Amino acid sequence: MNQPANSADIHKAIVEQQAVQDRKKMMLNGVLLLLLLAAPFAVYPVFLMKILCFALFAVAFNLLFGFTGLLSFGHAAFLATGGYTTGYLLSNYSGLTTEMGIIAGTLAATVLGTGFALLSIRRQGIYFAMVTLALAQLVFFFFVQSEFTGGEDGMHGIPRGELLGFINLEDNLNMYYFVLAVFIACYLLVQRIVSSPYGQVLKAIKQNEPRAVSLGYNVDRYKVLAFVISAALAGLAGSMKSVVFQLASLNDAHWHMSGEVILMTLVGGMGTLLGPVVGATFVVNIEYNLSQGPLRDWVDPILGGIFVITVLAFRSGIVGEIQKFVKKNLG
Amino acid sequence: MSMIFGVPVAVLSGQLLIGIINGAFYALLSLGLAVIFGLLKIINFAHGAMYMLGAMTTVLMFDYLGVNYWAALLLAPLLVGAFGVVIEYFLLRRIAGQDHIYSLLLTFGVALIITGVLVNWFGVSGLRYTMPDMFKGGVNLGFMFMPYYRAWVIVAALLVCFATWFMIEKTKLGAYLRAGTEDSQLMQGFGINVPLLISLTYGFGVALAAFAGVLAAPIYSVTPVMGSATLITVFAVVVIGGMGSIGGAIITGILMGVIEGLTKTFYPPASSAVVFLVMVLVLMFRPSGLFGKEA
Partner of B266 at 20 to 30 A CA spacing, among A43, A52, A199, B284? Predict the structure, then answer.
């Protein structure tokens, strides 16, 4: 306040610098978008859709883990709830269009997420991880014993149907562009959330919760909302996955899946926007390539090894390390 | 035959016995978790894998080296405990200064590796372990049949739980441990070798899990995946009891086993879920846990 001219100059410089950075980012995003649009002509679309679904799952998880600092060990429950709900509705009510089934699956996951959130935020730190894991196990038992899920066999032959009643999703290209559109929309949503004032509060909670409390923020409400959004997006990922593969199975509800999404986020870079996407691409590719080769029985131990190496050697993940490198050498 | 709530007494007491035995395992496992948590401030996600290693070691030592049950009861926890010390020394210690979430994830990765490797070697179907001859048979208590081995499991688990409680609450080593829980830096300042204490604590906690594994070998199906589902139930038990007190961990463990057994008698479909439902209730009405002080 003492030197208005000077501070205005600084402000101007910052704005300009920001503008340059924004232009760079826009160009990068444009290139990425073109690549994604062209991808199904080079790579098998179903494989790409698998990556996109898991990427969305990881982006959802990262909102909670990377930006709010809450480690949920139960996100598989939302993925599976979305998938089963959508699968059940589309299989049994032929009048429903695909997007209605997907919306219903997302809503179901949202409701479940609200329940999880209200219970789990009553405990902190590692207890939070244990509570979410235990709640997800409860959901897993429910799905094992329910008849509508098909138990151990899973739910097969879910019809892809028609989007809005006229776009045939049996066609892999149509399906791909739909999944891509949903993914991009969700990615932008999370980007918007993270950079909003609300997102800043989440980061504050992550960095120093007592201070956020003493600043007068109702921390629990912020946490619950972050959890619910994260669960909803995870459910959406599950819903789309069940439509893409026309299959919903217990694998999606298993704690193993909760671990996998943590791995994706961690490897890619927690707390970065692009990290979970890179991580999901990496993990899905590794799993696919291993399952084709002589190491097909060693997927689990190898994933465990990647976990250990990531935690020991590069905790910032792929994107985080690149950012660090760029900042150090080019910034 | 006499009945209680429409259930024959023999059936009820039989389920109750199974409940107490499961509870004894929960108690041993959550005790180990609590010991590790006290000093290292992490949840050991590899605890289930260590329990499984205890059982697998027992079976394999018998099959390949002819090591009998009693020797295994001593050797398996020692071996697995030593393995735990190695993990602590080479892995956990490297990230000791970081956020505890990382150590938790590290132990999760370790569990994936151990379980995955053993699944490859032995498959997921159970290995057989023959019960020692002296434990075959049982005694008729009038209202129920009590197999000798089950009685032994309860006695052994309670003895070890009590010994652990005694060591932590009443001995000098235990005093160091408790002091380290409060303020390990200050204790280091008093000239106590805290890193060594941490290694040994992790090894000891893991050895408790392995001990439970040895006890489990003759009665449960021994497979590389036996630990993971058990561990999640034990997490629920830990959330219910809170890790603030050693005694609380033991009591909660046995209590949850009994509740599970009773549910199996009266409403079988809910038996695998009941511990988690109790956890939900506890979170709603007593969020810090039955014996917990911390939030």
Answer: B284
